[in-house]
Amino acid sequence: MIILLYKYKMKKKIIFFILNITWSMCYSNYFNLYLTNNKLNKYINKGFLPTGYELYKRNSKYILDGVLTNKQIDNFYDNGYVIINNLINSNLINKAKKINFENKYEIKEYGSIIFNPLKNSSTFLEIANIIGKAVAQLTPIIDDGDVDLHIINDKILIFNGGINGTSNGFNWHINKIPIHENSLGPGISAYVALDDIDENGGGICLAHKSHTKKYIKYRNNTNNCNELNNIIYAPQLNKGDVILLTRFLFKKTSKFNNPLKKKNISRYIINYMPSNGIVTNTKYKNITIKELNKKNINTFIKIPLKKTYSYKYNYDYK
After folding, report:
1. Which domain holds residue 9?
2. How far apart are CA 183 and CA 299, in angstroms?
3. Which residues are registered as beta bridge partners of 84?
4. DSSP letter at 66?
5. How confident is the model at residue 37, as a pLDDT?
């Protein structure tokens, strides 16, 4: 009887010890999570985020009219990009393809490039506005009623493989735009497929999750970045498909696998940023997009967004 009582007390102590350790670990994890969120909020209040932590989420005060589902939004934050199939309809793509631009620049080892097509075409502006609604869903600061979304720049890239179709195109890089890297954004680039992209190449390669702290060593020096080749993804796309990616995700050209099937592959690229982004290429210091637009100097086009205040009373609770 004494032995049984002793075993019962020991068993009770062990169970209590395990529960105590488990509770401590859970509390510790919660406390660390709280500290992390608290630190995040401090950075947000200052208007910038540390390098490698540019993507952040928070509950929105507004419901934005956009096409992205919660799953697609989560994929963007997890991977640094999301692919939206058939976002731009074929009629609009075909209309865009028929436009002839005089300001086409030839690149010997790439193909050609057309800068700022939307400033000369209402069709490309329509495309940029459609995409902008999705971009706003991925830009948390837009939930502030005073912060808008702007187009920083845009261009069309036409890849033909260069000489004999054997060029690799652009190597690994991140987007360099005239906005300070620590600006609260994150800053999103859109890649619109103006042509189908299949296994023969001609599109872009993405480095999965390369926007994170682990890969910041390559942001200013892409030499010897073979590590990115281990996380490479070359999506096959149909005309009208759109890739949205944080500007800090690494990408490069997907070279033509079969030069004999060389063909021109076009994509339209738009860079977006919220109005609190700090502009770097003006004579003014620490001036935001919003402030620059007020001065009517090199103004950035604003995306028309529909914001609905999300707080509602529920009178049908059961």
Report:
1. 1-46
2. 18
3. 242
4. -
5. 65
